[in-house]
Amino acid sequence: MNESDFANLVEQYSSLIFTVCFRLVHDYQEAENLTQETFLTAFLSIDRFTGTNYKPWLIRIAVNKSKDYLKSAYHRTTNAVDNQTLDMIQNDKTNYGLIEESEQIETIKAACRKLPPPYCEIALLHYVEDKSFEEIANILDRPLKTVQTQAYRARDKLRKKLKEDMVC
């Protein structure tokens, strides 16, 4: 096989080999590296290939390269460091998200308290305490349809109230 034929082989199967590698290692950069390694190995051992269909042969090389990568100490150490870093970042985001969420809840609570009865209590129960309409109907001893109607009206009033507060 000459270089032109091998270049055509690479062009024909590169996306397939990349997909195989990516599905196994779940890392875009590493899948690209493994794809290159697969074709390098294929190029170096093409003279020993005795079959007629290159596709399964290339896939087998890619799978073996990916498995070797996953077994390697490099993968385990870099992956562990990356996971620790990711955990730290996630914790920071979670902490920030909790602070931001609590601020939003306080804003919603304040807006709910400005609503007239019965919308105030329904808005607090539904939008802050996350109670279902059925639960609210049982708590307030009101018909379900009444609670639903009041909740929708409360939502509209709450939306207007929050917009007013944002403008000020």
Number of strand segments: 0
- End-to-end span in angstroms? 75 Å
Give the rounded overall mean pLDDT. Answer: 81
The low-confidence runs, each spanning 5 or more residues with pLDDT under 50, are 92-97
Helix content: over 70%
Structural class: mainly alpha
Number of helices: 7
CATH class of the largest domain: Mainly Alpha
Question: What's the story with the biggest beta sheet?
Answer: none
Share of residues in strands:
under 5%
CATH superfamily of the largest domain: RNA polymerase sigma factor, region 2, helix turn helix motif
According to CATH, the fold-level topology of the largest domain is Rna Polymerase Sigma Factor, Chain: A
Secondary-structure element order, as H and E? HHHHHHH
Short description:
This protein has 168 residues and is mostly helical.
Can you describe this structure?
- This protein is mainly alpha-helical.
- It is built from seven helices and no strands.
- Helix 1 runs antiparallel to helix 2 and helix 1 packs across helix 3.
- The longest helix has 41 residues, at 73-113.
